[in-house]
Design goal:
The complex is a heterodimer of chains A (349) and B (156).
Chain A (H helix, E strand, L loop, with lengths): L1 E7 L7 H9 L7 E6 L11 H12 L3 E6 L5 H10 L6 E4 L4 E3 L3 H9 L5 E9 L35 E4 L6 E4 H6 L14 H11 L3 E12 L13 H17 L8 E5 L3 H8 L2 H7 L3 E5 L13 E3 L1 H8 L7 H7 L6 H9 L2
Parallel strand pairs in A: 1-2, 1-4, 2-3, 6-9, 10-11, 11-12
Antiparallel strand pairs in A: 4-8, 5-9, 6-8, 7-9
Helix pairs in contact in A: 1-2
Chain B lengths: L2 E5 L17 H10 L3 E6 L11 E4 L3 H10 L2 E5 L2 H9 L4 E3 L5 H4 L5 E3 L27 H15 L1
Helix pairs in contact in B: 1-5
The chains are: A alpha/beta (349), B alpha/beta (156).
């Protein structure tokens, strides 16, 4: 039996109906749809005509449905409820409320997961339709690359039918309930934002001996909305608190998360190139160098020599990154010399 | 034909003209054409093409720009990213400064043209959007051309 669960917040009138419709249009239907309603001001979804028709359509397709109103505790409670209250369902398909699955998605995920009982989870491509760039070579689902912030699942490349084992999965995937139960379910220390909850779950399963599979034949479109979902949670401290929870998990899994010497370049391309001149010295001096750069492409020829992370990640991990502002440093130190030497002094190169 | 790369603009700032943008590029391009160089302008979408250039290559990845700079005869730029990129690659060219100070932002391997400290903004570490455009902070086109002639002799 397969349960599909959608946690929703702030998207009653935007993408939630599309997500539900895409579930109903699957070539292989789940047995039940659980909608965890995490909205502040809840609407009885059996009433608005659009939902009335959608829910009746599910009924006509012999799909059970349940709408569970939450106490605005966040998606993590919805995910955990799906696990706890559905012991008859061996597989759980997670879909976000701004995602539209292609009609064969669940069928592909299911046929992959049943091949081996040690497969804990199977995910596919979860791509924004407007992002047409090719997958960067930095894209990775390896746990040690997580701070790079570029996931392979984000890039749709028509005809790419790669199926491979990965460390962790993002966003939407099908997983084995028994495997999730075995590792204790979701990490309930996370805030209502639930930042990295899917990575903690899937890598946790891998750590327990299960495999996670990325099957690029399964495609889900992500209509990334500016509001609603966890993007509706503006409080920066919640994201940072969740990052600390993630770091604790990484420590438990004995994954090296040390950044070594950290450089943050939130400035212009010229400033990046100025700094790039010093990189050989820096690499010589420090065993591990991590760079967060607003123009990471400048360091295209250093990908195998330094650890690159995204600016958002730098903010999450380091907190206030203003201390890395070279111009502020120069002003505060009444600097009169060359910028190369300012960088040398500031970063103790 | 040998080519020269020009990088004539520093990014516009809140629709305000960047104070580091040299005002006499069309004269410089005209001179380079007279010397029978192919002139390649590099930049990004939204920037104006300098009259007379042979080609305007926009939004090129840094990897490609680094390759291009090694293949050109020499280059000219304002105080933008390009003279840093060229210095990183060790390729000589001319960086034209206005209100910014080449002793802070220039590179020894380049020819740094500047009218001197009287024209440099007092606080070099402000955001450039906070600095007004001042045409008199720049050398005249003929002074830049003198340096071009010297560089041509050097690279030949």
């Amino acid at each position: 039996m397969i349960l599909c669960e959608i946690c929703t917040s702030g998207r009653y009138e935007s993408t939630l109906p599309l997500a539900i419709q895409s579930v109903a249009m699957q070539s292989m239907l789940p047995d039940k749809l659980l909608i965890y309603d995490d909205n502040e001001n809840k609407v009885n979804l059996t009433q608005p005509p659009l939902y009335y028709y959608l829910l009746n359509m599910l009924h006509r397709l012999d799909m059970q449905w349940e709408i569970l109103p939450s106490n605005k505790k966040g998606q993590i409670y919805g995910h955990q409820y799906a696990l706890d209250a559905h012991s008859d369902y061996e597989f759980i398909w997670r879909l976000d409320d701004d995602e539209i699955a292609m009609p064969n998605t669940l069928e592909i995920l299911y046929k992959t997961i049943i091949k081996n009982e040690k497969i804990g989870a199977v995910g596919g491509i979860v791509a924004q339709p407007n992002i047409t760039e090719k997958m960067p070579i930095d894209a990775s689902n390896k746990i040690e690359d997580i701070y790079k912030g570029i996931n392979e699942q984000w890039f749709y490349n028509k005809g790419d039918d790669e199926i491979k084992e990965v460390d962790h999965l993002y966003s939407s995937f099908l997983y084995r309930r028994s495997a999730a139960i075995e590792i204790g379910g979701y990490d309930m220390r996370l805030s209502k934002v639930g930042h990295r909850e899917e990575t903690i779950l899937t890598y946790g399963m891998k750590h327990a001996g299960y495999k996670n599979i990325l099957n690029k034949n399964a495609v889900t479109w992500h209509f990334r909305m500016p509001d609603g979902g966890i993007r509706g949670e503006k409080e920066k401290f919640l994201w940072q608190a969740d990052e600390r929870v993630f770091e604790l998990n990484m420590k438990d899994w004995e994954v090296d998360i040390s950044l070594g010497k950290v450089i943050v370049l939130e400035n212009g391309v010229g400033d990046h190139y100025m700094f790039k001149m010093l990189l050989p010295e820096l690499i010589e001096k420090y065993d591990k160098v991590t760079i967060a750069a607003s123009n990471p492409g400048v360091f295209w020829d250093y990908r195998d020599k330094v650890n690159m992370i995204g600016m958002d990640q730098a903010r999450l991990t380091l907190g206030d990154i203003e201390k890395f502002n070279i111009y502020k440093w120069c002003t505060e130190n009444k600097w009169k010399g060359h910028m190369l030497n300012a960088y040398r002094r500031m970063y103790q190169i | 034909m040998k080519n020269v790369i020009i990088s004539p603009y520093s990014p516009s700032l809140d629709k305000k003209k960047n104070p580091k943008n040299f005002p006499y590029w069309s004269t410089i391009v005209g001179y380079l054409k007279k010397k029978e160089y192919e002139v390649i302008q590099i930049g990004v979408n939204g920037e104006m093409e300098i009259p007379g250039v042979d080609e305007f290559r926009k939004n090129k990845p840094y990897e490609e720009l680094e390759k291009m700079v090694m293949e050109c005869e020499f280059w000219l730029s304002v105080d933008n990213f390009f003279h840093h990129l060229a210095a990183y690659k060790g390729k000589k060219g001319i960086a034209i400064f206005g209100p910014s100070n080449p002793n802070i932002f220039g590179h020894d391997g380049n020819v740094n043209i500047s009218k001197g400290s009287n024209y440099h903004t007092k606080n070099q570490f402000l955001m450039w959007v906070q600095v007004d455009y001042n045409i008199s902070a720049f050398n005249k086109a003929n002074e830049v051309i003198e340096e071009i002639d010297k560089l041509i002799k050097e690279v030949q």
